[in-house]
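#struct-pred
JK: can someone run the complex with flavin-adenine dinucleotide? inputs below
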Amino acid sequence: MAVMIWLLILVLGAIALAFMEAAGWMWAAALATLLVAAGATKIVPFVLMVPLLVLLAVVATSLLVPALRRHIYTGPVFAFYRKILPPMSDTERDALEAGTTWWDGQLFSGKPDWDDLLRTPAPKLTDEEQSFLDHETEELCAMIDEWEIVSTLHDLPPEVWAFIKDNGFLGLIIPRSYGGKGFSAYAHSQIVTKLSTRTCAGAVTVMVPNSLGPAELLIHYGTEAQKNHYLPRLARGDDIPCFALTSPHAGSDAASIPDTGVVCMGDWQGKETLGLRVTWDKRYITLGPVATVLGLAFRAVDPDRLLGGAQDLGITCALIPTDHPGVRIGRRHKPLIAEFQNGPNWGTDVFIPMDFVIGGQAMLGEGWKMLMNCLAAGRSISLPANYVGMSRLAVRAVGGYARIRKQFKTPIGRFEGIEEALTRMGSNLYTMDAARAMTAGAIDRGEKPAVLSAIVKYHLTERGRQVVNDGMDIIGGKGICMGPNNFLAIAYMTLPIGVTVEGANILTRSLIIFGQGAIRCHPYVLKEIAATREADRDRAIAAFDEALWGHLKFSLSNMARSFVFGLTGSHFVDTPALVAPETKRYYQQLTRFSAAFAFLSDVSMLVLGGGLKRREKLSARLGDILSLMYLCSATLKRYEEDGRQAADAPLMHWAIWDAMFKAQNAFEGVVANYPSKAVAWLLRRIIFPLGRPYVVPSDRLGHEVAALLIEPSATRDRLTRDMFIAKTPDDPLALIEAALPAVIAADVVEAKVRAAVKEGRVKGDTIDARIADAIAAGVITDAEAATIARAKELADRVIHVDDFEPSASVAGNAAVLTALARAA
Ligand SMILES: Cc1cc2nc3c(=O)[nH]c(=O)nc-3n(C[C@H](O)[C@H](O)[C@H](O)COP(=O)(O)OP(=O)(O)OC[C@H]3O[C@@H](n4cnc5c(N)ncnc54)[C@H](O)[C@@H]3O)c2cc1C
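RT: done, structure tokens with the ligand placed:
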């Protein structure tokens, strides 16, 4: 019995010390005390106790004295670590080191500082930005008829191109000093979001020049002469930019582009000039067919060592006017049904002077780093905004449609099956929008969030795809039949585009989010890797020693915290001071997830080592956990920033429960597929010691969410805020907006008629006859009868679908049908 108690104290003491991240001497003192107690109580014979104490003293000294520890333990571990560390190319290193970490680092710490997150101010627009959103952006939306573009024009009409250029839409991010708008990332995001509620072609045309492209690269890396020349021209729309990285044989693996620029002397404006002879073959380049300035990525080489350095200089970015001799701009690709300009371009042995290289000669070979840094910001803004915009359109229009459209004498939005899809739509949008705004706000505070940009790119495009897909299922045939009355099909057909670009989604989830996150956000891994690159061995071992032992303490602490939180249901975890009481438990649960995730990440890296890179399914699930914690953080922050709207609470609750359940499944998905069953067994006992506690959000909660989408309300307005709603009465969304209150008002009147029919006070074989009889019997007034008539007329127009001449439907719809088949 005494032995059992002693062992229990040993285990509990170890958990407590690990939990508190106790210093090494505290471990030694605690163990010594336990040994003495064991001797005193005869658990350990006295003759054994003294040698054991001596052994403990020797081991403790070897660990606590830095010089000894480094010599005995750290040195050999360092040598082994260096051997097993997978080789890293320069491009991989540039990608890993690009950008910054922010809240992702906190989520990796096991102890996220929620107060810190909640203190971060909500992003806001300046008066000028708000005015641009309310006027110029509104006007641009109103000018665009997307159906006309996809069915007839196949491009933005000239007056829309002119409006975009004249009003500075192409220079949103260009500083004022160069003639641009100098808007914040949040404003840029708001503008693209609003455009995306109306038009794909317009949104893409605006977002590409403001995203990863020549302007962004010039602002950060251009020479003063390049900035002075190009930025005002880009801001005014005198120059249309594109950026060409992708080659036929280098898509996802963009760093392997075969395009080359050979350093040489050549003739430029009649003078012998130092430059590059560039050969390239690019495809998929957005705005390429109409661009006047081509941003080009190629690998610079200097075989004759004209610059006196290495022969392979690395990826380089240049700006080349498209009328430069030798530049060949191809015809158009047709990206599904989206009618933005996109196409291939080529050049063979095109001589460009060194001045064309962005940043000049000094930036030869720095292109990959430049691209990765700009990607961290650009990827956080455009596509997240684009997909939130499409989702706002889907939620507002489909929610209204689901109330207007009746089957089995019931609005379809009241069927549980439809409710399920509506619930997903509403809660997904709530979270997506929260993550979009929070990430754009981080950029405005100077972050270049490499990992978070991958998270929002992947998860917002995937969730946006889910929202629009759900919407299409709900509206049935109305969504299938193309024409000006179809408000969702064009968005639906363009969904795969964002999924493919700026890091295709499968790659982003499987390789980037955790692969990059584990190294960038982990408090110690990057330090350990950096130590292996240190040339001086003593300094390398000293740096590695600090990182390694800190790492060990960190892992032990997260293991103990994860276990204790699991045992106690995380009820005793500190919560932020000023949060809504109804969300406190969520912060506690997320802290538990964070500790468990940090622990599981460490074990995964330890068990799988470099092999984790190849175990993409495990990496993807670990990335899902990190991503879901980020999405939950944004959701909770939004709830606070919106003023804890009680009416919106179901959206928030459903989103969090759904995410926690998914995160739990992702944990299980990792653990269940561990190569070692013993390690898997142990991990389950540590992370979920009492079993898996999270369940799917309840049907009752789902019902509350769905109900919010099908009636006009402040919640529905907040969920779809800043979206474009046309004022023209024939616009399909404007029709839904008009029909929704009319149908709701008419339902009340119809209920009176039905009750009177039941009581026998009103008779009639048809609805019209019953209404006439109800007026005659004084059950309803003429005005109420008019309400029913108006609702019916509007509802008929809402459910109407377009039809075309037989010849038009075959020829005109062929491309559309092909696109639809692919999108499905
Ligand atoms: C409409 C459109 C606009 C574009 N605009 C531009 C532009 O302006 N400029 C520009 O330079 N490029 C542009 N692109 C190119 C775009 O960035 C590439 O399409 C993208 O990088 C993917 O390359 P890929 O299409 O060749 O697919 P591939 O690289 O062939 O990938 C195919 C599939 O394999 C997956 N995959 C690849 N590697 C891995 C891995 N290691 N692990 C798991 N999965 C993996 C990908 O996720 C993808 O699902 C555009 C593309 C399109 C379609």
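RT: quick notes.
The longest strand covers residues 271-286.
Strands lie at 241-244, 260-268, 271-286, 293-301, 312-321, 328-329, 342-353, 406-407, 410-411.
JK: thanks, will look after standup
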